[in-house]
Amino acid sequence: QSVLTQPPSVSGAPGQRVTISCTGSSSNFGAGYDAHWYQQLPGTAPKLLIYANTNRPSGVPDRFSGSKSGTSASLAITGLQAEDEADYYCQSYDSSLNVLFGGGTKLTVL
Amino acid sequence: QLQLQESGPGLVKPSETLSLTCSVSGGSISSSGYWWGWIRQPPGKGLEWIGSFYYSGNTYYSPSLKSRVAISVDMSKNQFSLKLSSVTAADTAVYYCARTRITISGNWFDPWGQGTLVTVSS
User: Fold this and answer.
1) pLDDT at B31 (0 to 100)
2) pLDDT for residue A1 is more than 80
3) Residue A58 region, left (φ>0) first, then alpha (ψ -120 to 50), else beta?
4) In Å, what is the CA distance from B93 to each residue of A46, B7, B38, B111?
5) Residue (of B112, B100, B113) closest to B5 by Cα position
């Protein structure tokens, strides 16, 4: 069981907006540690999508955005496209210097 | 462009030691401000952090694996290695190496290697 909780699956039609939540606790997000997000396309390695809550690496479309508030973080995808179908993972840290991953969310584009 | 490549045996027998190497190209392991780490993913499951290190010697391991894990670095070859002892079928996974950016408020992994599948079976 992951310390960071994500919904197992979300879905949306092309062009729609979807959000993926990541719920933590006072030991991670609530302690001020950042949220990061990864996209894993089928059969490939994870790719950094959002770092430090809201920042997009070069090359990531602005359709992807992140936020963090209190003990939770969220990833939003607008203008959903078929190529966005993938697994999405949130990641953070705790005060014992342990790296934490969420259990992952499978996004299905209907 | 920084690239990482994992290598090692794809099959390990139960109770033996899993050994993998991550070769880094396009950048140096001794780059200031960057740590390096190992993450694994059992088939059909999520990501699990194994451990991270800084070239100067600081190393941190997942509490659940700490008793069986060792990460080492070979600066001359720009490589780092993972050893996981007393493996069982539960250690079957795709193993990834990645560069880690560390800040005061946490860390993130970028880029990742392509991953290598290690199966534990007799």
Assistant:
1) 87
2) no
3) beta
4) 14, 14, 12, 19
5) B113
Q: What is the pLDDT of residues B17-40, one digit of tens each?
A: 999 999 999 999 998 889 999 999
Set of chain A residues whose Cβ sits within 8 Å of the Cβ of B96: 45-46
Chain B: residue whose CA lies nearest to A36? B108
Burial class (CB in 10 A: 0-12, 13-18, 19+), A5: middle
pLDDT attached to residue B57: 80
A39 at B interface, C-beta within 8 A: no
CA distances from A26 to A3, A53, A75 (A): 11, 16, 20
Q: Which residues of B touch A58 (CB under 8 A)?
A: none
Structure confidence by residue, pLDDT tens digits, B45-65: 999 999 999 888 889 999 999
Side chain identity at A46, as an amino acid letter?
P
Number of helices (H) and strands (E), helices first, in chain A? 0, 9
